[in-house]
Amino acid sequence: MSLPEAPERFERDVLVEEFLDGPEISVDSVVLAGRVEPIVLAHKQTGFPPSFEETGHVVDAADPLLSDEDMRAVLTAAHAAVGYTTGVTHTELRRTAAGFKVVEINGRLGGDMIPLLGLLASGVDPDLVAAAVACGQPPVTDRTAAKVAGIRFYYPDEDVTVGTLELDEALLPAQAYEAMLLTGPGERVLLPPRGSAWESRLAHVIAVADSADELRAALEDAAKAIRLEPAGPA
Questions:
Q1: pTM > 0.85
Q2: Residue pLDDT, tens place only, 169-181
Q3: Alpha carbon 136 to its chain's center
Q4: Second-level CATH architecture of 24-136
């Protein structure tokens, strides 16, 4: 009589996830008495496939998805499923061929300057919205602007050790709102998959424009203002 084979064992836990196709968005919402109201919708820019690393975000105050009934229904169902009734949230979704799918839902505002992009695009301040809700006050969510705001993160072409890294503000486009270096001399910058996308960022630029095309062109032009001289390979 032969004994059954022992089940295969792994040194680490295995996480199995569903592959979701389609563009990714994030939605910062205010939730009052179970009612979910989107205040900032950001289209995520990704790179370094197949990892879907975040390389930027674009927020359009007039984005038609803000009133999309299917997306709102998914948002409402997701909040109901986790029992979240009051506060602010950051929900990440993919718009797949089968509809909107929830990637994650968080009891916080978005990172990567997304709340600031929302303020610059629409005039709605997500930080003040969150504070009002926390204090039991009605939040102000009236839109007073109709712009397109975005942030882009800039990376080296390959793994490097930074020699000098400079930002020439004179070369920034007129649409630039903020530009900031994120690393400095002597730092080893490793691109995915050797490193992480956020650790390998050289700089970021935030811009505000009247259209998505104008914004895209401005963020492309902004790359000229970032000057990297490698000290050598990483």
A1: yes
A2: 999 999 999 999 9
A3: 28
A4: 2-Layer Sandwich (3.30)
